[in-house]
């Protein structure tokens, strides 16, 4: 199903202050005025985001909101500036095409605690690298973690990554998500 701005504006009201979609009588007479959608959690990586169901098909809420506000064409990726994918205020979203991977949180699988730094098994040193547009850029081996982390941070800054890229998002767990 191809959504249009006209259609989503008919079935949803959008509150830019809260980032919430609410059903209109046209969208769902029995749910009119109530918040649409629900919080979903990815089984793969524990990522928390909101979705809405329209005529039996599930859509990412932030994409529906972007369409509601900006119309077509939708960008291939929409980035949440604060990295909280349940915060769908339009001021928190931007076209993430080409930059969405520049605003990641530190993976829970990271063993060094520093984004872009791994332990090189052969040398026992810390290896720094940064992936830009799908290509890994090797930044060298370092005796200590701090130097390797600084090399990766400086390279990300040079390449235009978000300053918060690679920091923890522990405060954005699903139990902190509130619904209206």
SS-derived structural category: alpha+beta
- Round the mean pLDDT to the nearest integer and report it: 81
How would you write the strand order of the largest sheet?
A: 3-4-5
Task: Give the helix tally.
Answer: 3
Note the main sheet.
3 strands, antiparallel
What is Rg?
Answer: 20 Å
Please mark out the parts with pLDDT under 50 across 5 or more consecutive residues, or reply none: 168-180
Tell the overall outline.
Answer: elongated
SSE topology string = HEEEEEHEEEEEH
The number of E-state strands comes to 10
Describe this structure in words.
The protein is of the alpha+beta class and 180 residues long. Helix content is 17%, strand content 26%. The protein has three helices and ten strands. It has helices at 5-11, 61-70, 145-158, and strands at 12-15, 20-23, 38-41, 48-54, 57-60, 78-80, 93-95, 117-119, 126-132, 135-142. Strands 3-4-5 form a three-stranded antiparallel beta sheet. The model is unreliable at 168-180 (pLDDT under 50).
Features:
180 residues, 3-stranded antiparallel sheet, alpha+beta, 3 helices
What layout of secondary structure does this protein have?
Blueprint: H1 5-11, E1 12-15, E2 20-23, E3 38-41, E4 48-54, E5 57-60, H2 61-70, E6 78-80, E7 93-95, E8 117-119, E9 126-132, E10 135-142, H3 145-158
How would you briefly describe this protein structure?
With 180 residues, this protein is α+β, with helices and mostly antiparallel strands. Helices cover 17% and strands 26% of the residues. The protein has three helices and ten strands, in the order αβββββαβββββα.
